UniProtKB/TrEMBL annotation:
This is S24/S26 family peptidase. It holds the Pfam family Peptidase_S24. InterPro entries: LexA/Signal_pep-like_sf, Peptidase_S24_S26A/B/C. Residues 7-93 form the Peptidase S24/S26A/S26B/S26C domain.
Amino acid sequence: MVIFDTEEYIDSLISVLQEGREVPLLVVGHSMEPFLVHERDTVLLSPVSRMLRKGDIALFKRNNGQYILHRIYKIKDNVVYFVGDNQNLCDVEGPIKIEQICAMVYSAKRHGMEIHETDFIWRFFQREWLWTIRWRPYMKKLLALAYRNK
């Protein structure tokens, strides 16, 4: 088995993106659940080819060198704020400079099925789910109670 350093691996993917090509990336981590599930789903990273907007999923590089794949929560004064689909309002990260954004996600494979920006499930998480950010802590508590009482 070959083990790669994550930053080195993504740095190599970034060089492919800079050539204008798309690259697949296995989702690792739980911050984008329930839309993207850890080690089950993959995304197709593409160079940024249009204006960024609220609800887009993008790969950015933190100041400490770590790469993060999250959804855009808001864009203000030419900086971007990100949050994962499994995170709360207190977890919004930013400001992130536009130059720190390495790629965008235009399609993904969920449960082995390819979905795109125009599909219902994509739009639901891009709009309605993002809107629930203020209520997620309460929603999670209700769900935990419901499952505990079964």
